[in-house]
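To illustrate the input format used throughout this study, we show a single complete record. The first block contains the structure-token representation of the backbone; no residue identities are included at this stage. The design step must infer an amino acid for every position from geometry alone.
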């Protein structure tokens, strides 16, 4: 059972801030690195899919930006925590800290970067983008649905983190395996392709790939100012909850052996 006292919540937030600062502490560009990767990716994919292939998606940069920042959060949260039971062994061995708190604080640190990128996205979309229809700036009625979408993203990310990191205790090559699988997931997620083309060509994967539903619903809310697809929303929350419970089970059964195995 997971519960949070005031002291525990404060400790989690403190650990998250420390980890976020340490990540950029020795970098001269500091927090700008949190934005450089999505900007670099956007430039590459913009040239490939809008200049060369000519996807002809209205407001393509905003469309691409919205998908990449969510995907990068998911990828960073999962690949960056595969070895967490080894790299942060001292926290649960000597500080009597619950293992799940290590995951939560790490993803909270990633969430700070996500929040920074989301702010940059909204600044671009509402102030710079000239292709899209931004007249709905004052209409925020559907934006309340961003809360379950972001909760879904966080829960899904921590669920994958739990499963992958506990498997790493006995199978060290899970890190390489996940990089291959994540590359396949990227192709099967509507990040650089039109949503309509994706749903027409791969309708099954829209239901089987929870990241697809998260990105589709985020774009529906922000770019189209419509309510999310509630079927996809509930389906993706179901996937995330199932994987999270599986991850907690594995952490309890396998994670207890991490100190002696790693």
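Output of the design step:
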């Amino acid at each position: 059972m997971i519960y949070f006292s005031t002291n525990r919540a404060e400790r989690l937030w403190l650990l998250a801030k420390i980890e976020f600062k340490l990540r950029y502490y020795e970098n001269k560009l500091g927090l700008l690195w949190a934005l450089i990767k999505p900007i670099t990716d956007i430039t590459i994919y913009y040239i490939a899919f809008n200049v060369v292939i000519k996807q002809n998606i209205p407001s393509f940069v905003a469309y691409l930006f919205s998908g990449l920042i969510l995907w990068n959060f998911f990828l960073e949260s999962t690949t960056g925590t595969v070895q967490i039971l080894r790299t942060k062994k001292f926290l649960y061995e000597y500080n009597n800290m619950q293992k799940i708190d290590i995951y939560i604080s790490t993803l909270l640190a990633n969430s700070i970067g996500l929040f920074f990128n989301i702010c940059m996205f909204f600044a671009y979309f509402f102030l710079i983008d000239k292709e899209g229809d931004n007249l709905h700036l004052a209409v925020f009625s559907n934006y309340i649905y961003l809360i379950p979408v972001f909760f879904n993203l966080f829960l899904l990310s921590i669920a994958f983190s739990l499963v992958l990191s506990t498997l790493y205790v006995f199978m060290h090559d899970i890190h390489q395996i996940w990089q291959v699988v994540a590359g396949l997931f990227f192709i099967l997620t509507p990040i650089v392709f039109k949503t309509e083309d994706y749903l027409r060509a791969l309708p099954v994967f829209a239901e089987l790939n929870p990241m697809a539903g998260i990105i589709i619903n985020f774009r529906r809310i922000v770019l189209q100012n419509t309510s999310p697809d509630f079927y996809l929303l509930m389906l993706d929350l179901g996937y995330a909850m199932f994987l999270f419970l599986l991850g907690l089970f594995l952490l309890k059964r396998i994670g207890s052996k991490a100190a002696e195995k790693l």
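Structural context for interpreting the output: The chain has 13 helices and no strands. The chain has one domain: 6-261.
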